[in-house]
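Changelog entry: the Probable enoyl-CoA hydratase echA8 record was regenerated in this release. Current contents:
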Amino acid sequence: ADYATILVEVRDRTGLIRLNRPKALNALNTELMTEVVAAAKAFDADPGIGAIVLAGSPRAFAAGADIKEMAGKGFSEMVAEQFFGEWDSLSRLRTPTIAAVTGYALGGGCELAMLCDMIVAGESAKFGQPEINLGVIPGIGGSQRLTRAIGKAKAMDLILTGRSIGAAEADALGLVSRVVADEEAEATAFEMAAQIAAKSSIATAVAKEAVNLVFETGLAEGVRAERALFYSTFATEDQTEGMAAFVEKRDPHFTHR
Ligand code: HXC
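Regenerated structure tokens:
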């Protein structure tokens, strides 16, 4: 497919979606959001894709939702459009997603990164929810996902003051999975993606489903659901193959069935 605001590429079993409005620091407008969601769903439906990397440009992963697009809108328009409501479908992909972040990940950009399963940060990464400075609040899950990721004390600090944090602080707070040099951010995300894509894609989908249950259930219910998901992996050929390969001291050949 031809896209206007993103670049899409496949390397081995990894799909890359690159936000590509560098002059606007990859500000997220409706067109870009629609394209990202379409590309992500297409990768998710492709059995040849085992992981998805979402990247921006060196200066910015994304500096937020496009303020120029939002500026003239009123309440009823936002409701009628369900503005940015589709973004959330990214959190329901079966394919593991990794955000490679260099530069600004602010507002909707931070929320987009948090919609991914993991964030790899370059040293220049800056995360924040500065919406308060515009007289609004996070609108793509930021108040919820940031608080679950780093706790109330730090989330309130960021969301109420609008300050941003660097890669080291984001690492210390547990917002990101890894911090590397800027030049290594994408390569690291691709290495992680390649490792993940080599596994059974049924197992990776079930594993991320199990982790994500933490955000929706209590402990007892989550543990029960995990056990049911664990048992379900024994209905797969990949379980048979993975365990046979271990016993026979060889590499597994997963067929994703
Ligand atoms: C539209 C943006 C933009 C944005 C940057 N640009 N961020 N355009 N929306 N969010 C544009 C600028 O207007 C400018 O274009 C160009 O990108 C370069 O930006 P500069 O400001 O000149 O760069 P710099 O001085 O380096 O400052 C970088 C920055 C600043 C600190 C990141 O751009 C900034 O504060 N941006 C806004 C960050 C923000 O508030 N994000 C939250 C948005 S609200 P021109 O053409 O003027 O040169 C949000 C809500 C989510 O995300 C919920 C939605 C449902």
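Strands lie at 6-11, 14-19, 51-55, 60-62, 97-101, 104-106, 118-122, 126-128, 164-166, 178-180.
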